[in-house]
């Protein structure tokens, strides 16, 4: 009999209960008709403060985050703590940007960030680029959620080797796919409630119980300090050093800017009822950042507790720590929290990717005048395809590849910032300039990532996001976040391209929005359906 | 008409504070002083979360449209 039987039973029971909720969610806040993207894909665009808080919190702070951030501190120390300043600075930025996106999307009934670019710059090409960037960046992110579940399954000993070992993972994702198909965004919104309660419970217990067993916080930090002082690696340590401070800062800023460009964050925000809901949430969501900071420190607790990852998979550090420290029944709850934690973002991400496909590829290039029901059914089927793709990714390809791809995805999504985020404030840029900027940023970003080696993971290329300035021929050991440099390049080219396009009198696309659209609120006049066919 | 509503307000400049401060590593990249066993690097960055909350809450209250 498995020594993990109690854990497995509790994990399974909670998982089944939550899956049941996923199916029931279709009846929750029941609309007259679920067959439109506003209902299936955005939950009726009517979520209040509480639901939005759980939904966006469950969406942004994913199972992967909970497993990977402590693993980063476990391996590299202080550099991994960037997640904290990152999630602090993101909310004030978003406060300014996302309320404008919400307003303009409310007036024009937009569903995706690419929809906005389409109306704002009148360029199907630019919108297509934004949509493809979003889909490509989101796919590996969904796959990573599976890694979160897998780390837990491995620790429980149910994912070993052979074909059958993948069965629990496949079953979990089939269930997820089925209820997302049926209930749309209402499913993760309802499940997020359970997920977050479980996560808060587990972490609260962990930060009181584990330090008490390990001799207090002082001892935990001393243990981490001793570990990093003993290693020869130059870029770990329990404080930052002269060479990685700029990387720390640019990574935090770049990630903060990227966060709300991700389609799944936009989906979460657009589902809210009015501007006040979003503003209030920008003050309330940092509660999750506090949680994240404490979770990050689980990595140091693991060092003090002498946890050894399973194989070379550092993502098993946190599950292993729980397994070692907690009684079996509570470990079961903790594992369920991580497992369910993977379901919420995976569902929202697949919905967001599906909406991008439907609105900006299917609608633009296949069927120009779809009915609401057609749009919804295309999205539902696409969400299934996206999830099957994610499972195949994990099963057939080395999981490390998904991690690398997610890293690349962050750099890529950042390249939509000039069109989406700056576009919300100014129409100064020319569509040709923005396209040129996107191409330059994307190309430059990929080249930089390609050139980054990481001897520790035996990578000659794509070894991380810390770009050594020495690669540009500068005589320094300082590293900078590659996405940040790529974004600068993108902006410079977009500005130059705009000037050139103006000088050459290249035709610019029409702007379908008015200034007042960016400050409109619930109850303000809506435009029933934007005329996408009218502009080119 | 919604078109006449402007959301410009000087209060929004205050949001720069919680964006800029957490990016200044010299403020917190040190071991001492400790707080509850936490080195400065960790407790001060956690404290910035509170700074962010305080600022966004203040700006929200000051820019709220009164019906």
TrEMBL record, chain A:
The chain crosses the membrane at residues 6-26, 47-67, 73-99, 126-147, 159-181, 193-212, 248-271, 283-303, 329-357, 378-397, 403-425, 432-453, 478-501. Keywords: Membrane, Transmembrane, Transmembrane helix, Transport. One of its GO terms (molecular function) is transmembrane transporter activity. Its main location: membrane. CDD domains: SLC5sbd. It is found in: Membrane. It is a multi-pass membrane protein. InterPro entries: Na/Glc_symporter_sf (IPR038377), Na/solute_symporter (IPR001734), Sodium:Solute_Symporter (IPR050277). One of its GO terms (cellular component) is plasma membrane. Belongs to the sodium:solute symporter (SSF) (TC 2.A.21) family. PANTHER family: MONOCARBOXYLIC ACID PERMEASE (PTHR48086:SF8), SODIUM/PROLINE SYMPORTER-RELATED (PTHR48086). This is Sodium:solute symporter family protein.
TrEMBL record, chain B:
The keyword Transmembrane applies. It comes from the Bacteria. Keywords: Membrane, Transmembrane, Transmembrane helix. InterPro entries: DUF3311. This is DUF3311 domain-containing protein. The chain crosses the membrane at residues 12-28, 40-60. It holds the Pfam family DUF3311.
């Amino acid at each position: 009999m498995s020594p993990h039987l109690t854990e497995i039973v509790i994990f399974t029971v909670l998982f089944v209960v939550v899956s049941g909720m996923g199916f029931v969610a279709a009846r929750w806040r029941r609309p007259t008709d679920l067959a439109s993207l506003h209902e299936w894909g955005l939950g009726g665009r009517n979520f209040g403060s509480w639901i939005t808080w759980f939904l966006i919190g469950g969406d942004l702070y994913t199972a992967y985050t909970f497993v990977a951030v402590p693993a980063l501190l476990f391996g590299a120390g202080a550099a991994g703590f960037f997640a904290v300043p990152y999630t602090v600075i993101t909310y004030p930025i978003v406060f300014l940007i996302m309320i404008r996106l919400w307003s303009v999307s409310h007036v024009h009934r937009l569903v995706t960030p690419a929809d906005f670019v389409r109306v704002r710059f009148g360029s199907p090409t630019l919108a297509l680029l934004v949509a493809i960037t979003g889909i490509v960046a989101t796919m590996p992110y969904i796959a990573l959620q599976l890694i979160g579940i897998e780390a837990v399954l491995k620790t429980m000993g149910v994912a070993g080797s052979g074909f059958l070992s993948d069965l629990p993972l496949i079953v979990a994702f089939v269930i997820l796919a089925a209820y997302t198909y049926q209930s749309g965004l209402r499913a993760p919104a309802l499940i997020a409630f359970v997920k977050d309660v479980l996560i808060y419970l587990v972490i609260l217990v962990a930060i009181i119980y584990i330090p008490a067993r390990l001799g207090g916080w002082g001892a935990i930090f001393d243990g981490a300090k001793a570990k990093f002082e003993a290693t020869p690696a130059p870029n770990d340590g329990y404080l930052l050093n002269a060479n990685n401070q700029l990387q720390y800062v640019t990574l935090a800023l770049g990630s903060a800017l990227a966060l709300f460009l991700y389609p799944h964050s936009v989906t979460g925000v657009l589902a809210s009822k009015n501007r006040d809901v979003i503003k209030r949430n920008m003050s309330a969501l940092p509660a999750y950042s506090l949680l994240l900071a404490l979770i990050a420190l689980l990595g140091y607790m693991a060092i003090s507790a002498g946890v050894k990852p399973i194989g070379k998979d550092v993502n098993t550090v946190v599950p292993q720590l729980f397994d070692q420290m907690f009684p079996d029944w509570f470990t079961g709850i903790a594992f369920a929290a991580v497992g369910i934690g993977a379901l919420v973002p995976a569902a929202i991400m697949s919905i967001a990717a599906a909406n991008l496909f439907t609105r900006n590829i299917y609608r633009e290039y296949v069927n120009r005048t779809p009915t609401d029901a057609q749009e919804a059914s295309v999205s539902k089927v696409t969400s299934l395809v996206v999830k099957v793709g994610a499972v195949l990714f994990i099963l057939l390809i080395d999981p490390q590849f998904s991690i690398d791809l997610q890293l690349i995805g962050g750099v890529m999504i950042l390249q939509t910032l000039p069109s989406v985020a700056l576009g919300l404030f100014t129409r100064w840029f020319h569509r040709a300039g923005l396209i040129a900027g996107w191409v330059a940023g994307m190309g430059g970003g990929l080249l930089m990532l390609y050139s980054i080696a990481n001897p520790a993971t035996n990578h000659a290329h794509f070894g991380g996001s810390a770009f050594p300035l020495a690669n540009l021929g500068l005589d320094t050991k300082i590293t900078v976040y590659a996405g940040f440099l790529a974004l600068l390049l993108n902006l410079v080219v977009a500005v130059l391209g705009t000037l050139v396009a103006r000088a050459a009198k290249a035709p610019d696309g029409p702007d379908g929005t008015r200034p007042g659209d960016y400050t409109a609120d619930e109850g303000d006049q809506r435009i029933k359906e934007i005329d996408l066919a009218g502009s080119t | 008409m919604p078109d006449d509503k402007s959301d410009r307000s000087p209060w929004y400049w205050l949001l720069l504070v919680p964006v800029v401060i957490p990016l200044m590593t010299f403020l917190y990249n040190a071991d001492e002083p400790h707080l509850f066993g936490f080195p400065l690097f960790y407790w001060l960055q956690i404290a910035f979360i509170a700074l962010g909350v305080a600022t966004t809450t203040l700006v929200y209250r000051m820019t709220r449209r009164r019906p």
